[in-house]
Amino acid sequence: MTNERRTNERRTNERRAPFNSANGTAHLEVMIGEVLRFGTIASSGLFAIGLLMALAGYRVALAQMLLEAALIVLLVTPAARVVVSIIEYVRERDWLFVALTLVVLAALGGSVVAAYYR
Amino acid sequence: MNLTSELALIIFTAGAVAGALGVALGLGGGIFLVPFLTLALGFPLKSAAAISLSTVIATSSAVSARRAGNQLINLRVGMVLEVATTAGSLLGGITAQYVAESTLQRLFGIVAMAVALVMAGRINRRNVIADPTADAGRLGGRFYEEESGGVVTYRVKRLPLALVASFIAGNVSSLLGIGGGIIKVPVLNAWCGMPLRAAAATSALMIGVTATGGAIIYYGHGDLRPLLAAPAVLGVQAGSWAGSRFAEQASVKWLKLLMAVLLIIVAVLMFVRSMR
């Protein structure tokens, strides 16, 4: 597993070596990758523990809470990725992309409103 | 619906198969999971769509986390088109409560069939310029291509068309519980100048945010149950992890052909279902 990962990292570096990114996009891509990786591991871990506990009938109330938490982490991860993008575009003073990503975040906010409005 | 160990295992396995196929084709996997959950397990469409959306988010996050750094994902194109996909998914999530199921299924069947035919007709086309120093334009990109063994450049054309396709993709995503890559990827590839791998990677990133827009609404309305989502998400994660190994070896030509065949099957299934 660790060896495989190292190979992948080396391959990634080789891919990047022959050319340079025209803007700060490469940096943002790496940050987005970190956010998504953390969200994936956290939500999958919570889902796995919660599911096994629920199926075993062990502390079912806690299992339910873990599963709810897993789902919320899952839903928050893409939104967090958008927030990270906004911050990065602000730092780069790329106002067009600040505006575009803010609209995306606003649309997600609209979904939250729609979720509570029946 | 109570979750037994057997049901959990069935959902997990279905998720694994859907995830493996999905990642190999640059789709979310929902296109296979939703028909399975509704046709084989008898889940209501809303529940199946909600479960599927959670797996779409999981696949998107996991696959994009693995790909981040190799510049296959076109972040700028992704951010621009996400404006359209999230707007579409917000609208789709709201209208999902009112639109007749059979109408949607027929519409979906027509779209899937049309996309399949376009895909099949353009199997041998390439969009890349084999010159790493060529000007990619404001939205274009360049990446290392395995097949030719060099850095390739591409330009993005017809942005308004890409935006329209993304809006429809976002809408369909919420309504039917799929990622929407099924619509975006062929359009980006066939008409907007993006190589299949770049289009698929960019779409895979976008579908996470898109599906979140729809999933939040289903969750708020009580249609997204964490206990049912758990085995599906874990299955899809396992499947997409395995599938990403397969996808790197598979040729683009065969991926396109496989995608076209699968789309036709899904279209037929949707038509059959809408007749009931």
Topology diagram in text:
The complex is a heterodimer of chains A (118) and B (276).
Chain A: H1 2-16, H2 25-56, H3 60-91, H4 95-116
Helix pairs in contact in A: 2-3, 3-4
Chain B: H1 5-25, H2 30-40, H3 45-67, H4 75-95, H5 101-121, E1 141-145, E2 150-154, H6 159-176, H7 181-190, H8 196-220, H9 226-249, H10 252-275
Antiparallel strand pairs in B: 1-2
Structural summary, described in words:
The complex is a heterodimer of chains A (118) and B (276). Chain A has helices at residues 2-16, 25-56, 60-91, 95-116. Chain A is mainly alpha-helical. In chain A, helix 2 runs antiparallel to helix 3 and helix 3 (60-91) packs antiparallel against helix 4 (95-116). The N and C termini of chain A lie far apart (47 Å). Chain B has 276 residues and is mainly alpha-helical. Helix content of chain B is 72%, strand content 4%. Chain B is built from ten helices and two strands. In chain B, strands 1-2 form a two-stranded antiparallel sheet. The radius of gyration of chain B is 18 Å and the shape is globular. The two termini of chain B are 23 Å apart. In chain B, 61% of the residues are buried. The chains are: A mainly alpha (118), B mainly alpha (276). The interface between A and B is large, with 57 and 58 residues.
